[in-house]
Fold:
Amino acid sequence: MVEMGRRARATDQAEVAASGKPMWSRECREEFVPDEIGVLLACTKMAASIKYGTACRAADLPVAGQAWRAGQIDARKVTVIGEQVASLDPVTAQEVAADAVDYAAGQGGRPGGGRTASQLREWLRRKVIAANPDAAEERRRRALADRRVVITPGDDGTCELWALLPGVQGRQIQQTLTELANGMGADDARSMDQRRADTLVDLLLGRTEPPAVNVRVIVSADTLTGRAAEPGWVPGVGPVTATEVGELIGRDDAGLGPQVTFRRLLADPATGILTDVAEKRYRPSAALDRAVRARDVTCRFPGCRRSADSPGTDLDHTTPWPAGPTAAANLAVLCRRHHRLKHTAGWKARLDASGLMTWTTPTGRHFHTHPWTYTDPDPPPDG
Structure:
C-alpha cells in the first residue's frame, strides 16, 4: 500500500510543485485510485480512501512510513502526523515528523513509552505552532474570519444551534453553562445535558446572569518577556499562539466580558513544569488544587484523556495522608475509575519530585506518565 502511494506521488510531483498544495491534499490525488484499491481489497470506497490517504502520508513522510513498517507506530498515528504537519514547508514537515515518531513510539522505541494518537495530536499541535509562529498566527486569523452561528430547524419542535467561535470564548461558554448547571442542586431531575441546554436559553434571553469564571493562561517566562514566541496553553482549548497569549493577558477583558478572571501561570522554560506547593492539611486548598490540575491537565493513568477540570476527577495522595504530604509532589489527578483502580490489589503508583508517575500493573509491568509539558522541549525521557 505504501509503495502504491509512493508511485502515485511520483506522478504528481510537477503539479504539486506548481500548485503549492500539500502533497497529500485531495486535489493532488489521482481521482480513481481509491476505486481501484476498493476493488483489489473488496472494501468500500470510503475505507479504500482512508487506506490510500494513509499510504500517501507514509510515502511523503519517509520517517513515518519506516516507523509504521517497523511496527513502532500504527496507521492512525501516521495519519495524525500527516494531518498536523500539512501546513508546514516540506523541510520543516520532515523534521517535525521525525520528532513526532520519537514522541509517539517513546524515545528509542522502548516499551512503555508510547503515546496514544490523541496525545500525539495534542503534542503536534504545539510543535507545529512553535515551528512557524507567524504562519500559525495567520492561520488563526483566517479561521476566526469564518466564525458564525447556524440554526437548523429540526423535528418535533426542536432545532440545532451550531457555532464556530474563538476557542477561548467557547471554553468560557462551556465553563459558564457547566457552573450554572452544577449549581441547580441534587434535587433537579434534569440531566446535565438538559440543564446546560436550558441554561443556554436562559442566558441568551436575559433570564439569568452569567457567573464569574476563571480562565487559566499558561505561558513560559521567556514568551511573557518577549525572548521567545513559544505557544501558550489554555486548558480545555489547547495551544495558543504567542500573539493570542499577549491579547489574552494584555487587555482588560480580551473580549471575554467582565465575568472572567484570568489566572496567569508561569512554566519553567527548561522543563515546562509548574512549581511545587505544599500544605499542612489533608484537603488541598483551592490554589493547590488549581496548580496540580494545571500541571497534569488530564488523568495521570497511562493513556487516559479525561480532563483534569472535568467533573468526576480527584486529587489523589499518591502516598496516603498523613504518611504522604498534601503537596503537588504527592498529588496527582485521577478520574474516578483510575482512582479506584489505584487502590485495587496488585496495582501500584509512585510519584517522584519531578512529577514523573510510575504505574506498576499486577503482572509487574511498568508504565510512566509525565506532567504536561507546556513549553514543549524535547520529549521527556521514559525513566
Confidence is low (pLDDT under 50) at residues 108-112, 377-383. The first helix runs from residue 2 to 19.
